[in-house]
Amino acid sequence: xxxxxIISIAMTTLLLSSCALFRNYERPAEINTDGIxxxxxxxxEQSLGDIKWRxxxxxxxxxxxxxxxxxxxxxxxxxxxxxxEVQYALKCAKLAYFPNIYFNPSGTVSKAWDPYAxxxxxxxxxxxxxxxxxxxxxxxxxxxxxxxxxEVNVEQLKNAKxxxxxxxxxxxxxxxxxxxxxxxxxxxxxxxxxNWGTYLDMEKKLMNAGQANIAAVASIExxxxxxxxxxxxxxxxxxxxxxxxxxxxxxTAGHISRGALxxxxxxxxLATGAPIRILSCRPDVKxxxxxxxxxxxxxxIAISSFYPSLNISATGQFTNSLGxxxxxxxxxxxxxxxxLSQPIFSNGRIRAQYKISKAEMEVATNNFKQAIIAAGNEVxxxxxxxKGAEDQKExxxxxxxxxxxxxxxxxxxxxxxxTNYLNVITAQNSLLTAQMSQIKNRMDAINxxxxxxxxxxxxxx
Length: 461
Fold this sequence. Notes:
This protein is of the alpha+beta class. Helices cover 61% and strands 13% of the residues. It is built from nine helices and five strands; from the N terminus they run H-H-H-H-E-E-E-H-H-H-E-E-H-H. Helix 5 (142-208) packs antiparallel against helix 7. The longest helix has 67 residues, at 142-208.
């Protein structure tokens, strides 16, 4: 076998082994997303993951608060600044393909001096106007993989911003509807407190007339004071949540305008059994895959360390200094140097770095698989909770209607003096319990919708 054949075989082997360094990341074939949503449908054109937050939360007053929070929240502003930082880093990675150019002018003035004044020496002036270009190409594929990794870093920060936005929207919506829930609870507790106050006044009058005893009055009075305490506690909770919401919105404490809890409507698409596609929207799933992509390019960078590194430098200058003397006018001088360095022995550092990058890629693959499973389970759980709340809604509504009828009938009997007022209070308490369950049911539906919004990654933007 001649020399040319050996060189050809070596070059062919080098090119074949290095093809992987120039491939873009692709999702591993062993990662399967079929059936991750359980009983929830998947596939199709219209997806729950494509719904924007405005379609999840249609209350106009809530939308105003969310838009204000997105505009003023510090975390959102910082997320934008971090994206700008990595975009600058990406620009530097792209510019790494171009050489560095430097201009370093210099000049000297020299004159010989005879202390005995025997000769008059002339002044000698030399100058040099050099321009230097250096190009550190690096090892095979290293620049390209570094650039691709920088692109992944940009996407990671954009994904982080989406996660911040999803959490912010969910927090604002949760606090908003919690306030609406507390408003309704406050109204019910105020009505119940007033009813017990009326009952207490009646019992005191009966006691003064000798028709009731102090034990009955004290028992009713204790219940009345308990209801007063509940009202104060709810009022305090409302103020605390308003203050917390104001902090998120970047505003001073104050009243938060809000609608009634009963006006909440689940997104209409939920009732149609629309398909779900979350891998393209959900921040944690995207983050896990981007981490895998980053590990892929980091592994390629580690592989590229096994290949030779090429450095090229060139200098061109206009000068009148050549050798030991000065000439005028000046002349152009140019030189170029290329060096190739192949690692042979580096104390095992290159091989160890490759093994580390390979292990990190396996870890990233496992994390991505787990993120997909967790995402599917969370979506399915939120859908189950939402369906359960909707199924209970009608039954609890019928219960409230029946108890309203019972209270009305009891009040009529009391008006005819055919029943004790305690029966009226008992009927009112039963109705209160059912109405509180109704408020809880509405909040369960709302919380499930908020959970679904987050499980889908904050919707499309």
